[in-house]
Amino acid sequence: GQSLEQPSEVTAVEGAIVQINCTYQTSGFYGLSWYQQHDGGAPTFLSYNALDGLEETGRFSSFLSRSDSYGYLLLQELQMKDSASYFCAVSKTGNTGKLIFGQGTTLQVKP
Amino acid sequence: DADVTQTPRNRITKTGKRIMLECSQTKGHDRMYWYRQDPGLGLRLIYYSFDVKDINKGEISDGYSVSRQAQAKFSLSLESAIPNQTALYFCATSDPGQDYGYTFGSGTRLTVV
């Protein structure tokens, strides 16, 4: 089978750094994506890792360790607008195009 | 205009009724998807299509059907709606070279009573 595990909720204060973890179990793993969703709106793509290491995009970074089947999304200099749900998603080999999503982590940023 | 447009935005329907959710995209991508979102369950794939003649079932296709009318249009139908199909439905599209980065529509909130 295949599964992804994320914490259900994370709370942090404005200006802080927060890390959202994602562990996965799947055959034919190809890459790990991260999406942000505000209040049931359209999920929006944030970041992608196909190789081990850190990818940085402004205040957001994403990390992947293929040997540990683990990745994380790092949000720095948190702002109130970062309060949202964050989903990790696995893409698989074979050019399937399909993404398998985790259950999502709700991030609450407090003043 | 949005890259991916879903209609209707909200819909309440009765058990047993047939309902169609529509999706159109202006990205020019061949690949389109329908996902369902339930609280605490993330997004689950219902159907996907790689071109007009290619339709594939996802992990939860029972009770649903789709139609790919054109490259830009992909509709989802509930043949006989039931209450446990109450959910938020998202359409998405992707570039075959960048399948990790979907563009989603704003969703259809469907309630079956």
Quickly list its features:
heterodimer, A: 111 residues, mainly beta, six-stranded mixed β-sheet, five-stranded antiparallel β-sheet, 0% helix, 59% strand, globular, B: 113 residues, seven-stranded mixed β-sheet, four-stranded antiparallel β-sheet, 58% strand
Plain-language structure description:
The complex is a heterodimer of chains A (111) and B (113). With 111 residues, chain A is mostly beta strands. Chain A contains no helices and eleven strands. Chain A has strands at 3-5, 9-13, 18-25, 29-37, 44-49, 53-57, 60-65, 70-75, 84-92, 99-101, 105-110. In chain A, the strands form two sheets. In chain A, strands 2, 4, 5, 9, 10 and 11 form a six-stranded mixed beta sheet that branches. A five-stranded antiparallel beta sheet of chain A has the order 1-3-8-7-6, with no helix packed on it. In chain A, 37% of the residues are buried. Chain B is an all-beta fold and 113 residues long. Chain B has no helices and eleven strands. Chain B has strands at residues 4-7, 10-13, 19-25, 31-38, 42-51, 54-57, 64-70, 73-78, 87-94, 103-104, 108-112. In chain B, strands 2, 4, 5, 6, 9, 10 and 11 form a seven-stranded mixed beta sheet that branches. The A-B interface holds A 4, 8, 31, 33, 35, 40-45, 48, 50, 87, 89, 91, 95-104 and B 4, 31, 33, 35, 37, 40-45, 48, 50, 58, 88, 90, 94, 96, 99-107, 109.
